[in-house]
Amino acid sequence: MSVLSVQEFASNHSDLGVDKLPFQEVDYLTHLAQSNPSMEHFICAVYDGDTLLARAYLQRMPFNGERLDNFRPTRWLSSALYDILVRPIRWRVLSLGSIFTTGDNGLVFSKELSQEAKAEVYGYLLSQFQNGLIPFDGLLIKDVYMETDSWMVDCLKERGFYMTPSEPDMILAHVTRFSTMEEYSAALRAKYRTKYNQVAERSKDLQVSDYTNWCEAPTDAMYPLYVNIMSAVDFYIQLMSPAYFQIERNSSSSLPKLRTYSVGDEVIGWISWFEDDKRIHAHLIGLNHNKAGKYRAYHRILYDLLELGIEQKKDTVCYGRTSQQAKSNVGAQPNAMASAVYHRRKSMRYLMKSFAQSVELETENSRQAFR
Description:
Layout: E1 2-5, H1 6-12, H2 26-35, E2 40-48, E3 51-64, H3 76-86, E4 90-96, E5 107-109, H4 115-130, E6 138-145, H5 150-158, E7 162-172, H6 181-187, H7 190-202, E8 207-211, H8 219-231, E9 257-263, E10 266-275, E11 279-287, H9 289-295, H10 297-311, E12 316-320, H11 324-330, E13 333-343, H12 346-358
Parallel strand pairs: 4-6, 11-12
Antiparallel strand pairs: 1-2, 2-3, 3-4, 3-5, 6-13, 7-12, 7-13, 8-9, 9-10, 10-11
Helix pairs in contact: 1-2, 4-5
């Protein structure tokens, strides 16, 4: 097993003979590392002899307890304990999976591995992390899909991790059943077809611009709109830095694509996304809330991602977390996810257990948009 920085991995390893997701490919990770210097970025590669079995992408970053204030208990005793024990926390958190990309659990396995072999590799990785392979205070394992990754949940619980709920990933599957947006619209129930037509009408005056090179985009105007979105999120570990937005396009397909939505010369919204052979995966978004509503810019973005999926014959559009009702209006359905937490100190693990068990997420009722 080897542990390297992203830059070292890029220069020393060409043996990436495993399934790759766009947001886990080395050139994107290199840009992510360079643009977020307060975070350390690592790749762990697991070998059987000379054969690469899997790799894991991790980030280590500072974490302050105040970031959990949105989950502060309401009962007097619990809130007092929270103020004493949680708010003063100053940890080094090691996260498995990109904290900026919903659905990325940080693992890429060889195609040839059976699920049993994957579980063995996963258990080995977890044990190495717990034993201090990369020094940490707290471990965060992100975005475990409860249905398809149930074997991961079993491994995590066996290793003493505590599971905590995450907002579901909103996914529109079987996009290839539609050849055009007209076919998509015809498949909607009347109520949601009306919503689609209303968005098309209200957003028709938006100017839409695509950028292959982020450096040519109005990034100074885009960054505050991204901060608008993040300020409304209950919990996040870190913001992207402004330097992240200086992405230079090269021959790689793994870098995120970008589209802006403007009224006159003013950008009121934007979306970035990844593409692979089978899917569109929403990444970062920015909105001017005061002006986006008039033009239904957010809903236009959701429909545009679907249209991209149809045009490029993708099977899936992954919209990410939050805004469950709006995304289900388009036809996306929730895919339940959880995260897992662990601390190197036994006393803190008891606190984590109590906190993890007390977390309750507000859920939104998903709509059934299709007939």
